[in-house]
Amino acid sequence: MERFSYSYSREEIYQAVWSEPIRDACKTFGVTEIALAKVCWRMNVPRPKHGYWLRRSIGQELPRKPLPATAPDTPTRFEGDRWVEPAPEPSRPATEKPKPQPIAVEPIVVPETLGTLHPCLAGALDDIRGGSKHLWECHRWRGTIPILVSEGSLDRALRVMSALMFALETRRWKVEVLPLTNALPEGGRY
Question: What pTM, to 2 d.p., does this model score?
Answer without folding.
Answer: 0.44
